[in-house]
Structure formats: C-alpha cells, structure tokens
Amino acid sequence: MPTVYLGMPLGNKHKDVVWDGIVEKIERRLANGGIRVKHKEDLIILSCKLRFLKHKLKEWNTANGRNLKAKKVDILYQISSLDTIQEQRLLSEDELLLKASLKMEYEEVAKNEEISWRQKSRILWLKQGDKNTKFFRRMANCHKRFNHIDTIEAHGETITDPDRIKEEIVDFYKNLYSETEHWRPLFNLQEGSIITEDDNDWLQSEFEEQEVLECLKLCAADKAPGPDGYSMGFFQCCWEIVKKDVMDTIRNFHTSDYFEKSFNATYVALITKKIGAKSLRDFIPISLIGSVYKISSKLLTERLKSD
Q1: I want to staple 91 with a disulfide (CB 3.0 to 4.6 A). Which of 84, 95, 241, 252 is the partner?
Q2: In this predicted model, what pLDDT tens digit does every residue of 54-89 receive, in sequence order?
Q3: Distance between CA 49 and CA 292 in Å, rounded?
Q4: Phi and psi (nearest 5°) for 206?
Q5: 3-state DSSP call for residue 170?
Q6: pLDDT grade, residue 247 (50/70/90)?
Q7: H or E element: which one contains 272?
Q8: Which residues of 217-239 are buried (b: 16+ CB within 10 A; e: fewer)?
Q9: Which of 234, 231, 209 is nearest to 12 (CA)?
Q10: What span, in angstroms and rounded, lies between the C-alpha atoms of 139 and 120?
Q11: What is d(CA 15, CA 5) in angstroms, rounded to the nearest whole number?
Q12: Higher pLDDT, 167 or 276
C-alpha cells in the first residue's frame, strides 16, 4: 500500500538541515490567506489546511530535492575546473573563495542526499552524518524489492495479474475481519473496582496545550507518516505555527465526540513474515494512521497510564 512521504527532515534534531526558510514559508502559507476554508468547524479547518499544505510541501520537495544528484555533479565539475587551473597557476582570492564556497555547498548537498535516502531506507537505528548514503540507498532499494507483491497463491493457483492480486487481498481480509457470530458475552462491570469522582473528573477534563506538547515529544519524529503524509517531526518543528488549529481540533473532539473522517483514514500495509512469501497468511497487516489520530490516541493513552 503506497504511503506519501514528504521527504523533509522536520524533526527537532534535524532543524539544522531543514531547507532554508521552509518553516517561514509554511507560516506564511497558513497565515497570509493562501488557503480559503469555507467551513467554520475546527476539525474541518485543520483538515483543509493540512491537505493544502501537503501539496505545497510536495512542490517544494520536488523543486529542492530532485536535482540533488545533478547539483552534486555541477559542483564537482566546478571544483575540478578550479583544481585544473590551480595546477597551472595560483588561484586568485576570488577563485579561492569560490572553491571554499563550493566545497561547503557540496557538503550541504551530500548531507541532504543522505537524509533523503535514510528516510527512504527506513533504517532508523543508524543516524545520518557518517557518510552512509550508499548504505541507505541499497537498503531503500532492497526494501522496495522485498515489499513488492508481484505473485500470490490463492485457491490452488498462482496469480500474477496486479488487479487480481488486489482483489484477492481485499477479499481475504474482508472475510478475515468479518463477524459471523451474532452472540456476544455480557460483562457485569458493577462488581469491579471503581475510580473516585475526582479521578473521573480529571480523566474527562480538557487536554491542555502542555499535555499535548509532551505527547508530541514522546513520538518518534521520523517514523513513516500515514495517509495525511505528515510525520510527528512536522508538528514538533512547526508547533508554534499549527498549535492553535491542533488544540481547537482536540478540544472540538473532546466536547462533541466527533472526529473528522479524513483524520480517521488508515493505510493498511502488508509486511512479509519471510522471504519469498506467496500465501496471504505469510503477511502481517499493520495500520498506518494519520498524524492527528496518532496525537489524539497518544493523549488518551498517556492520560490513562498516569496515576
């Protein structure tokens, strides 16, 4: 199942390598009327803004990221030309400054390329900054080949047609998760232990901004995003920009018990249990949830865990 990656290192630990001015661009886009929201509901406002911003981020990502290789080649060519000149004569002061500037620019391009491939590789235990670009690239290509489903076995036959494979996968999990029994056991919850009135009031109280921020800090910044295309790193880095809309959304959900449908969307990805998996029982389904859903569920979990 495809996942949208913005390809941007927006976590707090990556602030030093974020494209120049990207956070300011995000703030201007969301504040200067670049998006018109017809709805007044807080949930829909945030949904519209995130959807609008995602397209802009993808445009920025394409403009800044797709030419990394070409930019590296151009920089190396200019440095090589200066080296050739230096073999024949001393470089002028301007040429020396240009060469130093080109070397710094090359390091920046190489660092961004490494970050990009690290994100694609999903190798999170190995950090960027140690010249691991080739390793990240190999792992990204390896994951792509390993996770690609081009053949399955079902009903005693081998299926290679992509459309039929999709149909078989949908039918398999539709049957697996369908409920056939109409009877369910009953539970008597009146005899169990109960919480105090104060605890009950606290559990149902509104979430405060600091509580939301602490939950965000507990989330990994560079985990794969869900259907909305945003990782937790985006919210950690741009919290001052998006916090009002996020807090309005959470408070709206708290008071109305309504969750915007787009926030509830989920990608189901199939992870292979073994190499060469053919049967659908050889795959493990995992859910990739959206960022706002993840924040809300994390808030509930942390509150229930606390004393």
Answers
A1: 95
A2: 877 777 767 666 667 778 888 888 889 989 998 898
A3: 13
A4: -65, 150
A5: helix
A6: very high
A7: strand 266-272
A8: eebebbebbbbbbbbbbbbbbbb
A9: 234
A10: 8
A11: 18
A12: 167
| Residue 266, number of CB atoms within 10 A of its CB | 14
When pLDDT is cut at 50, 70 and 90, the band that residue 1 belongs to is: very low
pLDDT in tens, 197-246: 888 888 889 999 999 999 998 888 777 777 888 888 888 888 888 888 89
Q: What is the pLDDT of residues 123-143, one digit of tens each?
A: 554 554 455 555 555 655 555
* Residue 280 CB partners (closer than 8 Å, separation 6+): 152, 154, 168, 169, 172
Q: Give the pair of three-digit tokens for residue 115.
A: 């970050």
Cα 277 to Cα 248: distance, rounded to the nearest angstrom: 45
- The predicted model scores a pTM of 0.62
Q: Assign residue 131 a region (left: φ > 0; alpha: ψ between -120 and 50; beta: otherwise).
A: left
| Cα distance between residue 259 and residue 165, in whole Å | 33
- Orientation angle between helical segments 93-121 and 68-88, nearest 10 degrees: 150
* CB of 106 closer than 8 Å to CB of 76: yes
Question: Looking at beta carbons, which pairs linking 241-246 to residues 24 or more positions away fall under 8 Å?
Answer: 241/23, 241/26, 241/27, 241/30, 241/31, 242/30, 242/46, 242/49, 243/209, 243/212, 243/213, 245/42, 245/45, 245/46, 245/49, 246/46, 246/212, 246/292, 246/295
